[in-house]
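--- STAGE predict ---
source: upstream dedup step, 1 unique chain passed
mode: sequence only
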Amino acid sequence: MVAMHLAPPRVAQPLPMPVVAGVAVDPPVVLAPMAGITNRAFRRLCRESGAGLYVSEMITSRALLERTDETMQLIRFDRDEHPRSLQLYGVDPRIVAAAVRMVVVEDLADHVDLNFGCPVPKVTRKGGGSALPWKRDLFRAVVAGAVRAADGRVPVTVKMRKGIDDEHLTYLEAGRAAAQEGAAWVALHGRTADQMYAGRADWSAIARLVDELAPLGVPVLGNGDIWTAGDALRMVAGTGCAGVVVGRGCLGRPWLFGQLAAAFAGAPPPPEPTSGEVLAVLRRHAELLVEMRDDEATGCRDIRKHMAWYLKGFRVAQPIRAALGTVRDLHELDALLAAIDPDQPYPTDVAAGPRGRTSGQRRVALPEGWLDSCELAAGEDLQAAELGVSGG
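--- STAGE serialize ---
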């Protein structure tokens, strides 16, 4: 099924991944930032399962500079979390540069990833996320300002989509501009903004970007439809990308990172967990969320969104599933989990497939007149386009 995405087998070796905070990104696997998901609790679960780079939820430049309470919580990393990876969103080059400078001067992270891929309307209607690369001069200015502000002390990378839609593709020119301005790597999600999460990711676009940036010595990471470790190996083999970015594939499956580490090392993958082992991970996830929130009720509300992902494909009585969706505390959670058969084998055919958001294709919300020109309009108020809330 996945082979339909592939370009012909590559001969050249992928460009090596850069070193982050003195650590090689090995295996070349990056956790994609996901709002409300990739907090400290989930990143810890993923780190305990395997190696790679685990990126924070999206942080908005303006909110970081204003030191809003929510943002200062989101940029907290565990004491043993290394390297610390932070994704930054912004539209105004000056504000983005100031935020990167703050990250560097105050030693808030070891790596900054710039978000040019978010397709949600509240972001794109401001000209941000996946809408921004259409404005070529603005995109280049944001990347250049961030790289200059980092001053070589932390790598700055770029994550983007193919473009706004099939008539407004931006990824080749934007990738080239990012490389020329000093981005350490470029990650490409093989979908346009109007696709959201529908259809198949276009891995051939990743291969084209690899060829485009190879002469500039900048590696490309591929993103889109990595559901298994085998998918990751096929993407690298078929596109020549230097590594993969994993998003929805790890929802309710943090152990996927252990399987990815084994696959890239050429070792046999760890077996899929039984239902009892999955329930133990789910319970630990809830405990970590309670610890992170310092409040049992809030932590248990957070774990509710993960229930369907963890339990996908397992036999669970409908009343138990319904009760898990409203669980209020760890005692109640324990009682509900105890009612699930712990000896079920992992339902690979169902649970190792697509999961998470599947929102279909829709028109992208854009500022009025955004597509009239690839250049920014004179006098455009970029500060007004900055979001003040972090987390996506």
